[in-house]
Amino acid sequence: MPGPGCTEQRDETISTVQRGETMANGPEVNLQRFLQWLHLNNVQLRGCSIKYSDSNKGFGIFYSKNICDGIQLVVPLDLSITPMRVLQDPLFGPHCRAMYEEEEVDDRFLIILFLMVERLRKNSSWKPYFDILPTKFQNPLWFTDDELSELKGTTLYRATDLQKQKLHHLFYEKMKKLAEELLTLDGFPGRKITFEDFLWANSVFWSRAQNIPLPHSYVFPTSSEGQGRTTS
């Protein structure tokens, strides 16, 4: 049982790390910026820490000590990327609101668009977060043609091919033009967005999206929204 104050140290981790590995300058700088960003946004790391593992595993949240109430991490709801956040954004909102109300786009479209464009904006307030995310993903959508050919004859090959066709259609028919217009309005005319930019945002969404209960005011905000509410 933990002693007074419930601060018993353990070696258990939420994700794995190779001990003794030297952290490269790039990941170390990104991590420090991200930790500072968390602090400025009132995130509380109560019984855990964020560390760099290696180039394959990236960054992880590691258990550091026992907490009496069991709450290891507290993140303000203001850091949630939600459809309402996108619709209220001064850059995205005017272009997306009508499309959303007419059901031309859905919640997932809005968030993937936000991730893709914000990552490409030079002065995005989300840059410290994006910089610690993977730049590529290890799923069949990211396979080269040679790698994908190894799956021929399998149901996974067919499913991957169909999904890629759907994503190509969504990107080239709807998302690419809109995203480039948004970047032009933001002061970056001529910035061409690639399918890989879109594939990154799509992969981030599907690997990190969660359904969490939100207060009514975060779904249908009022003038007094977002004061002092947090989630664990």
TrEMBL record:
Organism whose genome encodes this protein: Cuscuta campestris
Protein name (database record): SET domain-containing protein
Superkingdom: Eukaryota
A molecular-function term among this protein's GO annotations: protein-lysine N-methyltransferase activity
